[in-house]
What we know:
With 382 residues, the chain is of the alpha/beta class. The protein is 42% helix and 16% strand. The strands form 3 sheets. An 8-stranded mixed sheet has the order 4-3-2-5-1-6-7-8, sandwiched between helices. Helix 3 packs across helix 9. The longest helix is centred in the N-terminal third of the chain and has 18 residues.
Amino acid sequence: MFKTVDEAIHFIESQRAKRSFEDFQKIIERYQIPIDLKNVIHVAGTNGKGSTVTFIKDLLMKQGYHVGTFTSPYIIKHHERISVDGKPISDDDLLRFINQLLPLIQQEHLSMFEIDTLIMLYYFNELDLDYHIIECGIGGLHDKTNVIKSNVAVITNIGYDHQFMLGDTLLEIASHKVGIVKENVPLFTTEQNKEILSYFKDYCTKHQSTFYPLQVEKQYQYPYHLHFHQKEYVLHLPTYQVSNLTLALNVVDYLCDLNGEDIQAVIDDFKWPCRFEQFGHLYLDGAHNISGIEALIQTIKERKLEDVGIVFSALMDKDCQKMLDMLKEFDVVIADFDDERSQGGHIPYQKAIEIMKAKHQNIVVTGSLHFVSTVRKYVISA
């Protein structure tokens, strides 16, 4: 038994042993874990999952619904992975559930993600919420969240990431992501690759699921404009948020009677840390794969940021050299941060930021969401 939430979180984050999805599903069945949540929106994709979840949550809350979200990784503290109406699970509730589940966790040697998934299921079942938005960790078909029964499946896009688990081609990766689609469960996506869309369509046909491929307006000038149901909305956000918002609007419009008057307010109030988040002339962006870096470069150019220096650090499972090659038009310094998975350079990130501040007007910190969240804490506390 843990006496403090800090002890509990330290234990949770130290649990790294993993098992197959099939083994985890057997554990769910053996212990009769409650998986029948009401109105579940299951979200997969290479990039944009967190932003899409937040847009959907904000739109539903604006309609008066109570919404649970399960996301990863966390930016500020572990609690935010499991939230209700945007508020992370409390210290007391997190401690209560971890102590309640501890015998099971130790008996089955569950990993951090598996533990969080169980806590989320028990917590949400206890609250009887209107909607639940569940974000996949990696992939979809074999992701531990796929034990749930969903009402809507959402795939943001397909790009190269986690190839060691999902495959080396886009179609192989797509085959994992689309695994969240259950029988008679509609699929919404803003993926634009025709070959992948054809694959999704065939998959949905086999599973008697309605397929909703969505077109995304091309944006070339900031601020961006989006049209929905004959109305125009303005986004003072990174360009990639146009796609995420398009997806969220269509999903929520499918689920309930969406009040168009609330949409601009949701856009204006939108906050998602470490997604081109600005602190003066310092920008934090959690781009951590090839498509993420592409979107970051596009955002820098469309924002017309001048004299940009990049502070970069990535994790060992990422294609670091490819991302650095894409950033070669900028002055880049490779930084290090306190994470055993870091493949950064020998310069501590604090020093790297100061070096770039002395050389450039604008600084962009990127390469890993874990790295950027570390820098964010440093910036806020400075």
